[in-house]
Amino acid sequence: MLLKEIRQKPQTSSKGLALVASALGCGVPAIKPQTIGSKIVNGQNAISGSWPWQVSLQLPNGFHFCGGSLINQNWVLTAAHCSVVVSYHRVILGEHDRSSNAEPIQIKLVSKVIPHPLYSSTTKSNDIALLKLSSPVTFTPRISAVCLASSTINILPGTRCFTTGWGQTANTTSPMILQQTGIPITSPAVCRQIWGQSKITDAMICAGGSGSSSCMGDSGGPLVCERSGVWTLVGAVSWGRSTCDTRYPVVYARISQLRSWIDKTIASH
What we know:
Elements: H1 15-23, E1 44-45, E2 54-58, E3 64-70, E4 75-78, E5 90-93, E6 106-115, E7 129-133, E8 147-148, E9 160-165, E10 179-186, H2 188-195, E11 204-208, E12 222-227, E13 230-239, E14 249-254, H3 255-268
Parallel strand pairs: 8-13
Antiparallel strand pairs: 1-10, 2-3, 2-5, 3-4, 4-7, 5-6, 6-7, 9-10, 9-12, 10-11, 11-14, 12-13, 13-14
Subcellular location: Secreted, Extracellular space
EC number: 3.4.21.1
Pfam families: Trypsin
């Protein structure tokens, strides 16, 4: 499917706004997301620019195949099963409506693809990869980094977090507008009960099963939780029911468990 023409679009944000956005630090959107009453299967349109770390991984013809999260000016975190990324694939930042050619997006190529060395395509454990961008991103009110979950973070089951993406919706079509949905964190015990004891590893975190879900095309995208106005990346979309059945929780790569590898990898590259 040919989506939109991919081309560099002019930056329309003022220098002053860009400085304000960069001063906010990670995980603080300059444009606040709508998180009240949000229930991307059975999700809702996001407010344009409100999830500024969300990226779209695309083919040169504009076909979106995976999501990802901007974690600093040089690196994007996605799923290892998405990391068929090669030199001609593109990282699109600041996008909201994929059918529009008027948005102030930034387009980057990937200089390095580093999947987790213990990623298993069979079990999907350690399902993250780091993409080093060919040149640094310029932070704007619509483009900024998310904070990474610390290795000691403890997220209580039932906590309402958010996932975003352009993946398939209930009618199996891929939306042009970025979708969001609020979903509860599922306890490891319940997740193992649903998916099987051996399938859920310590490097996984589950969320959903409450009427909305991530789906194909959302892979690699963010699961974020908010505290005191700061959003933290706790998961990257990994796997779930092939039918995107919203009664089942989706499994995400657990960032806290993988944080040490992320830090070491960025420091050494």
